[in-house]
Structure formats: structure tokens, C-alpha cells
Automatic annotation (TrEMBL):
<dbReference type="GO" id="GO:0015833">
    <property type="term" value="P:peptide transport"/>
</dbReference>
<protein>
    <recommendedName>
        <fullName>Solute-binding protein family 5 domain-containing protein</fullName>
    </recommendedName>
</protein>
<dbReference type="InterPro" id="IPR039424">
    <property type="entry name" value="SBP_5"/>
</dbReference>
<dbReference type="Pfam" id="PF00496">
    <property type="entry name" value="SBP_bac_5"/>
</dbReference>
<dbReference type="GO" id="GO:1904680">
    <property type="term" value="F:peptide transmembrane transporter activity"/>
</dbReference>
<dbReference type="InterPro" id="IPR000914">
    <property type="entry name" value="SBP_5_dom"/>
</dbReference>
<feature type="domain" description="Solute-binding protein family 5">
    <location>
        <begin position="92"/>
        <end position="135"/>
    </location>
</feature>
Amino acid sequence: MNFASSKFRRTVFLLSFLGVLLLVGTACTGDEELNSNLENENEGQYEDHYAEGVLGNWGRLNPLFIDANPVDSDIARLVFAGLVRIASDGTVVSDMAYIPDLDEAKTSYTFTLKQDLKWHDGTPVTSRDVFFTIKQ
């Protein structure tokens, strides 16, 4: 029984050693060729595309309701720009509009859209577009 036990240990050790050698040998050879092939293979394929994985179902992609569903929120933040946005330090910074003016009574804000805002097809973004989004 002692002989079988030592033979088994020797076999396990030898197989483990060969496995490690094989892994190290595979990892150390052909890196440059493999990387250059991958770079050439994918070159220019995805320049105009971005893929984002989400967990769950999207419901209503209106930027006014993005907080209702985390998936809507993730997608909307990738797709929509706001009139203003909150910077990482908590300050309000301009996005599609300049920082709004507050009236003397401090009851309403007036937003002025930046010039040269365009949709993806080149059509100008107008105050009617903003109103349409809010009206939804």
C-alpha cells in the first residue's frame, strides 16, 4: 500500500508540474504576434458604435423620469444631455443651456439654450424640443 501511495503522489506531482509548465509556456510565447493579429482584425470595426450591457428591462426613456427605473437611468445618462448638470463637486454647470437666471421673486428660472445645438441628423435643437420633453 505504501508503494501505491508513493506512486500516486509521484504521478500527481508530475502531472501538476507538466500542467504548470504548459501554462507558463503558453503564456510566454507568441504575445506580439497574437496582439498584432487581434489589433488588425478589429481595426476600424467599431468606431461609430458603443455597446452597453444592462441588467433588467427599460421602461420609459424620458430624461424626466429616469430615476424611476435604474436601467432607464443608465441608458438615459448615455443618450441624453441636460440643460444643466451636477458636477462631481456638487456644483451646477451648464450643459445644453447656460446657467439659468433666477427672477427677483425667486420663483422661476429662465434657461437660454446654447447656440449651434444640433440633433444627430443636423437639425437644430430648439426650445420647442425642450418643451416637448417636459410636456411628456
